[in-house]
Amino acid sequence: DLLTGWCLFGLALLAILIFSWVYVRKYQSRRESEVISTITAIFALAVALITSALLPVDIFLVSYMKNPNGTFKVWADANVSRQIEDTVLYGYYSLYSIILFCVFLWIPFVYFYYEEKEEDDGNTCSQVKTALKYTLGFITVCAVLLLIGAFVPLDIPNKKNSTEWEKVKLLFEEFGSSHGLTALSFSISSLTVIGMLAAITYTAYGMSALPLNLIKGTTSASYERLENTEDIEEVEQHLLRIKSKCRDGRPLSSRDRRTLQQLEERLRTLRRRERHLESIEKSWWTKACEAIRPLKIVWGVFFIIVALLFTVSLFLSNLDKALHSAGFDSGFIILGTNLTNPLNMLLPVLQRVFPLDYILITTIVMYFIFTSMAGIRNMGIWFFWTRLYKIRRGKTRPQALLFLCMILLLIVLHTSYMIYSLAPQYVMYGSQKYLVQLGNIFRSLLYVSILFPFNLDQCIVTRTYLFLHKFWFFSAAYYFGNWAFIAVFLIGLIVSCCKGKKSVIEGEVDDDDSDMSDDELSVYYH
To answer: Which residues contact 194 (CB under 8 A, 6 or more apart)?
Structure first.
């Protein structure tokens, strides 16, 4: 019942907080960790996951207010329904306000404070002032977005082919128009566009890389160690040959000196690899991973099936919009589905057995988040063509963790629209049914949007849907973003298929690492 649903949601919140703490602690550097940055990263990651969990709750609540035969439950009168809808809406605005606070104030402040602390360990007051000075730029951008959102016109010019848009306007009018909430909506939608770009970059790649990495596995630690030993012997012999040139007192040429320096750096890196490979080869964790190797393959096959289902559904949904929507001026919005997709077909079937449909939609949301994490972890933090930070287990800098959490916050904002694109009818109405009169007979229909026009008195639209389509021009941007997402996923799938197995210490040992960093990673292997 409803109480059980809220209890499960409470347990989910607790699980999210525990997961956020474990995830941040797993990747953060022990040498460079700081309390403020750690708490900020955990809090931001938890907010991202909680926000993503609100979509299944929204769908469940609108569905729970109606009986299987399409009639409203006794307790779900107009006032109660409106209270539940408002509660969910306030939950969205509260979480979105927290995201604005994190993205435009708290995370930038902590980031710049830590950067200033690395450069100057002296006056704390000076560090705070400098951090606030840089953060003021983010606050200014947020203020500009809020001001634009408060006065941006929601109406668009009328055109001849505006039948679909007129239907959508009914939903907007039902949603209401407060300037304060509109300003917040505009700011969040602006961040959602940035989140869309992050999803195209990281999530699309993660959806292909994560399953194939699980299927292919990693190279053997013993085999890599043997190759590494051969490389060490080769470098040592090369060093001896160069040093032998100066045994009679002759100085080395500038070219030989550069080569000598490069070989010595290469030798240090190979010896660090040797220590890491030796630790991994002897660790109980490696033996456990080898034992569950078949399970990893099964999970990889499952994830690639989900990714293909995701992509095919997204393609068909976007194709439907391209063929049957009112066009760019309406944000490519359609209220029904003319081309069905696998996910839209599967959800009505699962609705017959509670709560399979909610489990599936929750799984898709979590899959979207975790593939985003995998994409960021594999690619690192980039600014255009420049890599800023790497995400490595036990050696990730605090600034990189803050960037990771900010990117996840932005991606989560785009998650709701992605799920709507996959299953538009389900995200709009959940599992609601409604009654239509055929002569003197009332008939219950499974899906509320099979026939047009639908009856707003009989069907309750999720707050998610209304929030997503408050600005038509953002909806148009999301539409084109979906095509880009599909293209990047296909490119990432081809690249991941062509790449060989990953090293068992992929990304753990770099030339710029210090020998002290070996102690951080050894914690995970003993």
So the answer is: 410
Q: In this structure, what token pair is assigned to residue 277?
A: 């490979």
**Cα 55–Cα 410–Cα 140 angle in degrees, nearest 5:** 125
Q: 403 and 389 in contact (C-beta within 8 Å)? A: yes
pLDDT over 90 at 465, yes or no: no
User: What is the rounded CA–CA span in Å between residue 502 and residue 219?
Assistant: 6
CB 149 within 8 A of CB 141: no
38-51 pLDDT, tens digit each: 888 888 888 888 88
**How far apart are the C-alpha atoms of 46 and 18, rounded to whole Å?**
9
Instruction: Rounding to the nearest 10 degrees, give the CA dihedral for residues 34, 40, 41, 44.
Output: 180
Q: DSSP letter string over 466-514? A: HHHTSSHHHHHHHHHHHHHHHHHHHHHHHHHHHS-PBPTTTTT--TT--
Q: What is the rounded distance in angstroms from the CA atom of residue 175 to the CA atom of residue 39?
A: 36
pLDDT at residue number 486: 93
Query: Which H/E stretch holds residue 443?
Result: strand 441-445
- Tokens 């600005």 appear where? 471
Q: Which two structure tokens, joined as six digits, stand for 40?
A: 């900020």
Q: Over 394-408, what HEC string results?
A: CCECHHHHHHHHHHH
Alpha carbon separation from 519 to 256, 272, 299, 394 (Å, rounded):
33, 11, 32, 10
Task: Give the Cα-Cα-Cα angle 78, 79, 83 (nearest 5 degrees).
Answer: 115
Cα three-residue angle 445-363-447, rounded to 5 degrees: 10
Q: Looking at the whole model, is its pTM more than 0.85?
A: no
Distance in angstroms (rounded) separating the CA atoms of residues 50 and 10: 10
Crossing angle, helix 35-64 and helix 78-101, to 10 degrees?
160
Q: 381-404: buried (b, 16+ CB within 10 Å) or exposed (e) per residue? A: beeeeeeebbbbebbbbbbbbbbb
Token pair of 365 as six digits: 């949301």
Q: What is the pLDDT of residue 294?
A: 85
Burial of 230 (0-12, 13-18, 19+ CB in 10 A): exposed
Specify the DSSP element, H or E, that contains 139: helix 124-151
Nearest Cα residue to 380 out of 372, 370, 389 = 389
pLDDT tens column, 417-456 = 888 777 777 777 777 776 665 555 444 444 443 333 344 5
Q: How far apart are CA 52 and CA 373, in angstroms?
A: 14
Secondary structure of residue 82 in the 3-state scheme? helix
Q: How many CB atoms lie within 10 A of CB 159?
A: 11
**For residue 409, what are the contacts with CB-CB under 8 A and spacing of at least 6?**
44, 47, 48, 51, 99, 102, 103, 195
Using alpha carbons, select from 435, 403, 377, 421 the residue that is nearest to residue 70.
Answer: 435
Residue 231 has pLDDT above 80, yes or no: yes
Check: CB of residue 463 under 8 Å from CB of residue 428.
Answer: no
8 Å CB contact between 513 and 272? yes
Give buried/exposed letters for 431-460 (b at 16+ CB in 10 A, else e): bbbbeeeeeeeeeeeebbbeeeebeeebbb
